[in-house]
Amino acid sequence: MIIMVELLHDTVLASGMTEEEVRLLAAVASESTFLKNELIFNEKESGDSIYLLLEGRVQIERKNIVSNRFLKRQLLTLRAGQVFGEMAFIEKGLRSASARAKGHVRVIVFSSQKLEQLMQEHPVAGCKLMTSFARILSQRLRRMNDHWLSKSLQNNHRVDFQR
């Protein structure tokens, strides 16, 4: 567990946590590896885990239906230190996209059930963890907004924020 505490200590998930809270988080974590092109999770499946990327790159992709064919579209590529799989945990729903290893990948895995138990038993640590998730989602939304606005302006589309 000491190694897991060290791995988590300077991550986005442990931001603002005390040493004891990081130990609690480490107690519900496990480590896993994936090979190149291995599917970590699939779009539309139950979201029962959250992942913290330690090594490698993970591609987040989504299927789009175009003229009755499924086309995979890459949404983003994640690098070490980034979290993925949190949306299904927060929404208690299905995965909105797939995650695929783009080489050898090493992750820390948090089961949703264990995280929920941690948050119930230690609400202050749970609040800090949810704040970290909110920060992650807010940063992604801001990047997507900037990207969308940039593309809209390049294509001379009128941007209407009043809808």
Overview of this protein structure:
The model has no long low-confidence stretch (mean pLDDT 88). With 163 residues, the protein is of the alpha+beta class. Helix 1 packs across helix 2 and helix 4 crosses helix 5. A hairpin with a 2-residue loop joins strand 4 and strand 5. The N and C termini lie far apart (50 Å). The strands form two sheets. It has a four-stranded antiparallel sheet with strand order 1-8-3-6. Strands 2-7-4-5 form a four-stranded antiparallel sheet, with no helix packed on it. It has five helices and eight strands; from the N terminus they run ααββββββαββαα.
Features:
4-stranded antiparallel beta sheet, single chain, 29% strand, 163 residues, Jelly Rolls, 8 strands, alpha+beta
Order of helices and strands: HHEEEEEEHEEHH
Amino- and carboxy-terminal Cα gap: 50 Å
The CATH architecture can be given as Sandwich
How many domains make up the coordinates? 1
The Rg value, from CA coordinates, equals: 17 Å
Q: Name the average pLDDT.
A: 88
> What is the strand arrangement across the widest sheet?
1-8-3-6
- Within the CATH hierarchy, at the fold level, what is the topology? Jelly Rolls
DSSP E strands, number? 8
Helix content: 25-40%
